[in-house]
Design brief:
120 residues, Bacillus phage protein, three-stranded antiparallel sheet, binds zinc ion
């Protein structure tokens, strides 16, 4: 998953963790590697960067999060095709399939999702 998937498909907001206040008490959080700690609330906060992934399971999560119809097909032995339904004008029954083929499932899913939201 890359930044465009995080923002365009998953709806995550990219904030530098060290600049983000605690969502509960708004105190400045202490940045520790890939996460931040609020000593007042004892809360950890993880950044969207932790969500970045090349894993197939995360690509499927993104497809499911998108909530539109989708299919995965294998194209030969080394390529994956991902079909994502893109409704026109928000009408679920009218639209078209956006198709992307790549050498990994995760890459094909990302391309298809980005095309379906008009980001690629
Ligand atoms: Zn707090």
């Amino acid at each position: 998953m890359d930044e465009r998937i995080a923002t365009g498909v998953m709806g995550l907001t990219l904030l530098p963790l060290e600049a983000a206040p605690c969502p509960y008490c708004e105190q400045e959080m202490r940045f520790c590697g890939e996460r931040s700690w609020c000593s007042q609330c004892s809360e950890w906060r993880y950044g969207p960067a932790k969500e970045y992934s090349l894993e197939n399971a995360d690509a499927i999560d993104a497809l499911e999060h998108h909530g539109k119809e989708w299919q995965i097909r294998t194209e030969g032995s080394k390529e994956y095709g991902v079909w994502v339904w893109k409704p026109n004008d928000g009408l679920a029954l009218q639209g078209s399939w956006v198709i992307a083929v790549a050498d990994t499932l995760a890459h094909a899913a990302c391309l298809a999702l980005l095309r379906s939201v008009g980001a690629a």
